[in-house]
Amino acid sequence: MTTPDPRALLDRLPTAPGVYRLLDATGQVLYVGKAKNLRHRVSSYFSRALNRRLQVMMGQVVDVEVTVTGTEGEALLLESNLIKSLRPRFNVVLRDDKSYPYIYLSTQDPFPRLAFYRGSRKGPGRYFGPYPSASAVRETLQLIQKLFPIRQCEDSFFRNRSRPCLQYQIKRCSGPCVGLIEAADYAEDVARTVKFLEGRAEEVIEDLAAEMDRAAAALAFERAAVLRDRIQTLQRIRQRQYVTGEGGDLDIVAVAQGGGRHCVLVFFIRAGRNLGSKTFFPLAPPDTDEAALVGGFLAQFYADKPIPAEILATAAPEERELLEQALGQRAGRRVAIKTRVRAERARWLELARGNAEVALQSRLGSEADYVRRLDALRAALHLGERPQRIECFDVSHTGGEGTVASCVVFDGEGPCKSAYRRFNIEGVAPGDDYAAMQQALTRRYTRIKRGEYPLPDLLLIDGGRGQIAAVAEALQELGAGGVTLVGVAKGADRRPGQEQLWLFGRKLPTILASHSPAMHLIQQIRDEAHRFAITGHRQRRGRARTQSVLEGIRGIGPKRRQRLLRQFGGLQGLSRAGIEDIARTEGISRQLAQQIYDAFHRGGGE
């Protein structure tokens, strides 16, 4: 491709700060950059010696687009957002589409609950985190239950109790649902929980110690023993989770490079507590240096996440002062990026770098094995080339209830979880897997035809010859050709390793050896689709089953609902009661009793 005339491009560029985009002949963005002076920055690509990567890139550039900003800091923020959305192949691109989990406390409730939370933090209540993983959140919630028995149940479950649940029996909840704890005592446990999550464990220990002394002085030795055990548990947690000498928020960022791949590992320290680490494998040209990688990563990583006051990094990012200024502007306070540290902090950086190296080597090994499996799959299915995008669908339900279809995506590097999708199936006969699969495929491939998703090279379906025929009919109606369609049917006795592969258009199945790398890959993809489908089905079924019948009846508020449940010992007893029996409950008229009876016996509540 011919390199454009630099003068034709440069004459129309402003000298103001902003963001530039280098485009190829098809309009695809090859590179996004920011500049204090757009004309000077872009002209440097044509007037100075370039390394091989930039030479290759500039050989494809035919046009330049720019966006002028007020300051260079604004340009940096816009640059990171454009890189995340456009994913240019000559930039450092962070593949991190998943939001981070938090611990949520519903402080607006009379008896607040603690819960795992992921999503927008605009609602009422308090949010603690972010945590690097769901397991880190759940581990913390389990620890808190041992220390302070705050409820963690859903509100619908909490409002409809007439007797304490198992969590109360095993001393993991204080039973506020049935009035087994005073509001003031519960509030005290909530206040201590907040202190613990804010990193003020020492204050909690002092409070517990003072209360223990008071209980011992009052000869309440059982209570004193409970408090003593909590203090000991809290001290053990502090020894394991807390970082010596740190009381604030801090992230430790380490980079490892090799084999044409890049790894960034982040340790999260919040309120002095080490919440764990998360590993990232950003896309970047192989010859990207560590400083450029750190700079590109930090700008994109903190685009939509809370920013700590300090960031320790194994290499100083390019234009560190500008990046600090931009992050500080976003955080509303000063942010420092440090690389030259001593003593304990230097040891943390080395520890993080060591973990990054281990993660990188593991990734390189798994990628080599994955490519080997892809090649084996190509040969087994007689495909023209190695598949670069594989989609697999599965359907899950319980007796036709809560049917959910899943779609998982594997690309040239493995699972692409940001592309996973679920479909709540409606309007089909219960248990009709063929119709459920057709509906899911129709919804998915309608969006593919609109250009919202790329067309896969290989489509796997959990099913046999009949299922494949139904899917092929749906795809034919949509005009979605060019996809290799394969059904994965369970073998004799549904035993793993005996699956049959039904390729559309062939009369006999393909049977691969149980030790075949191609079969291992198919099983991995099929099992992932099944896991994703059954998780979605259980969530949908659980939501439907935990929704109390009483909550759908107009005129039944929390107090009346509680009286009914106490009167009849729960929903099951109420469902067996007659209209006259229900009407004897305080505050329930005969008309309302009739509505309650109808809701249970005809499912018709208003």
Please explain how this structure is put together.
- The chain has 606 residues and is an alpha+beta fold.
- Strands 12, 13, 14, 15, 16, 17 and 18 form a seven-stranded mixed sheet that branches. A five-stranded mixed sheet has the order 9-8-7-10-11.
- The model has no long low-confidence stretch (mean pLDDT 82).
Features:
606 residues, alpha+beta, seven-stranded mixed beta sheet, five-stranded mixed beta sheet, 18 strands, 45% helix, globular
Write the layout of secondary structure elements.
Layout: H1 6-10, E1 18-23, E2 29-35, H2 38-47, H3 52-58, E3 63-68, H4 72-86, E4 102-105, E5 114-117, E6 126-128, H5 134-147, H6 155-159, H7 166-169, H8 183-197, H9 201-217, H10 221-241, E7 250-258, E8 261-270, E9 273-280, H11 290-301, E10 310-313, H12 320-331, E11 336-338, H13 343-380, E12 389-398, E13 401-411, E14 414-415, E15 421-424, H14 433-449, E16 458-462, H15 465-478, E17 484-489, E18 500-503, H16 517-546, H17 558-568, H18 571-575, H19 579-583, H20 590-602
Parallel strand pairs: 7-10, 10-11, 12-16, 16-17
Antiparallel strand pairs: 1-2, 1-3, 4-5, 4-6, 7-8, 8-9, 12-13, 13-14, 13-15, 17-18
Helix pairs in contact: 4-12, 9-10, 13-16, 14-15
